[in-house]
């Protein structure tokens, strides 16, 4: 019989008593998995947010005569609103023409889309003023557009909020409100409901 040397016996005992070590592949459950960075969510392209409004609409407008004075005197107007695309659809032009007991309103709103911020600026001009006013800036979410700016009314700085809601494919609503307390409360001063004239879309 082959006689085992003392060195061989020692090595064999060492192999039996040492625990088996497992080597885990990178990313396996045996080693920490580095946290994967999620890519930022893509911002929807809002360049076509106003496509629904292209065409000619009948307009019923209610306007508060003296905003932020405690007045409750409203005046009514009837007329039309025409909207057409310009700048290859990256902008659109609205022309408002209404009449009522308080007089005539002939105005326009140039809406410009910023592809970097994915926001719109609404630039309003009255024929009597002859210049564009302070733009309201914002965006659409779930068919509702909300736009804000800061202006001056009777020497006081106020906030302006303009909301556009597509109520149905043929009806949309516009609301303007003012705040003189930093947005804590809002007073509605302009409500227009537009109804699409059949066959007027481009």
Describe this structure in words.
With 202 residues, the protein is mainly beta. It has one helix and ten strands; from the N terminus they run H-E-E-E-E-E-E-E-E-E-E. The longest helix has 12 residues, at 6-17. Mean pLDDT is 85; it is low at 5-28.
Count of helix runs? 1
Q: Give the strand content.
A: over 45%
Low-confidence sequence ranges: 5-28
Report the end-to-end length measured between terminal Cα atoms. 104 Å
Helical fraction: under 10%
What do the pLDDT scores average to? Answer: 85
What structural class should be given to the helix and strand makeup? mainly beta
The radius of gyration computed from the alpha-carbon positions, rounded to a whole number of angstroms, is 33 Å
What general outline do the C-alpha atoms trace?
Answer: globular
The secondary-structure element order is: HEEEEEEEEEE
User: What is the β-strand count?
Assistant: 10
In order across it, which strands form the biggest sheet?
Answer: 1-2-3-4-5-6-7-8-9-10
Largest sheet: 10 strands, antiparallel, barrel
Secondary structure elements and pairings:
Elements: H1 6-17, E1 55-64, E2 74-86, E3 91-100, E4 103-114, E5 119-126, E6 136-141, E7 144-153, E8 156-168, E9 171-179, E10 187-196
Antiparallel strand pairs: 1-2, 1-10, 2-3, 3-4, 4-5, 5-6, 6-7, 7-8, 8-9, 9-10
């Amino acid at each position: 019989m082959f006689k085992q040397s003392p060195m061989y016996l020692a090595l064999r005992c060492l192999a039996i008593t040492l625990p088996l070590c497992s080597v885990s592949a990178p990313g396996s459950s045996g080693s920490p998995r580095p946290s994967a960075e999620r890519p930022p969510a893509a911002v929807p392209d809002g360049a076509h947010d106003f496509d629904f409004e292209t065409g000619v609409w009948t307009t019923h407008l209610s306007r508060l005569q003296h905003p932020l004075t405690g007045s409750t005197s409203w005046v009514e107007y009837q007329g039309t609103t025409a909207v057409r695309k310009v700048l290859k659809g990256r902008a659109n032009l609205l022309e408002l023409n209404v009449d009522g007991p308080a007089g005539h309103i002939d105005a326009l709103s140039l809406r410009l889309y910023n592809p970097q911020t994915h926001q719109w600026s609404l630039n309003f001009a009255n024929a009597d003023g002859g210049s564009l006013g302070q733009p309201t800036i914002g965006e659409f979410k779930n068919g509702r557009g909300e736009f804000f700016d800061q202006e001056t009314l009777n020497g006081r700085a106020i906030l302006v909020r303009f909301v556009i809601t597509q109520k149905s494919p043929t009806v949309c609503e516009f609301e303007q409100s003012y705040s003189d307390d930093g947005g804590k409360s809002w007073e509605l001063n302009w409500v227009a409901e537009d109804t699409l004239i059949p066959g007027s879309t481009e």
